[in-house]
Design brief:
homodimer, about 140 residues, alpha+beta, Arc Repressor Mutant, subunit A, Dna Ligase, domain 1, three-stranded antiparallel sheet, three-stranded mixed sheet, about 35% helix, DNA-binding
Chain lengths: ~140, ~140
DNA sequence: TGCTTGTTGAAAACGATTTTCATTGTCGGA
DNA sequence: TCCGACAATGAAAATCGTTTTCAACAAGCA
């Protein structure tokens, strides 16, 4: 997605027989405002600012639709809850997670070799990957 | 761990005030026999071959202890269940997951730059990372 | 052997996510 | 512009993996 204008997303949804509703607009805006890797609960809280009646279930359903339509991506840190990123054109990005305060930072460069090399030894055709980095942010870093 | 002999693991557990029990032995053997990235349910089923009375709860508790003591590592594929790998000396490994049949293969080489470079732009101190590759295994690969 | 404490199993509790179902609202077409 | 088909919604209940509770048990040191 190049620019995640509501119109652009609406068009993408409509293309699949889906509809753009006030609720989805609110979730989309929350997603854009919150930055990357937020969980459903957080997104729900934020989206309620725009549409107070919004239910958490609808947030889950909306995120599911967004993921299916390529509007958002799920992210997993292994703490038992799914986070979501708004998709952006020009590819994926990864995350740095602070093990102390939980802060999350984006990593735009991907230092991995091209997909086709990654699975070659095992004969796999790699189509996607997921990389998360864990450590300590500047604020929490053990001052050496 | 160099060689995951029961004795070696027992020693490591005892070192932390833990005890080696029949149940833990069964889980350890199941873990070794099953290969990498298996979920608790699968490990439970396998371990029951050695100790039929084994409860699923005990498997969870044992895996938790193994992870805390560095005997095993948790792995997340994002399908809402945790998988476990026996730890091995000489470092971590990653996985190739077949999106069609679910087959899992190990990737021993890590093509990532050294940790200290990865978080530098954001000022993070990276201490660990997690990389999973998704795609299609030789059997499921779309023959080009 | 005896005792201290970690461990176990079954049942119940949990928390995130999904489903059910009746109601509401979007949007393509008349 | 109005209509109607059908996607979307909200609340409550259901799922599902995992964790906690609690009384009975057993590993390993004295």
């Amino acid at each position: 997605m190049k620019g995640n204008g509501v119109e652009r997303v609406a068009a993408r949804l409509r293309h699949r027989g889906r509809r753009m509703t006030v609720q989805r607009r609110a979730v989309l805006e929350a997603l854009a405002a919150l930055g990357c890797a937020r969980d459903a609960e957080t997104i729900h809280a934020r989206a309620r600012a725009a549409y107070p009646k919004l239910g958490l279930v609808t947030v889950y359903r909306t995120l599911e639709a967004f993921v299916a339509d390529g509007v958002a991506h799920p992210v997993f840190f292994g703490d038992g809850r799914v986070r979501y990123d708004l998709s952006e054109d020009g590819g994926h990005h990864h995350h740095l997670v602070c093990l102390s305060c939980g802060r999350i930072a984006r990593v735009d460069e991907c230092h991995l070799p091209p997909s086709r090399r990654l699975g070659r030894p095992q004969g796999f055709t790699v189509t996607a990957h997921r990389l998360e980095l864990f450590g300590y942010c500047p604020r929490c870093a053990p001052k050496a």
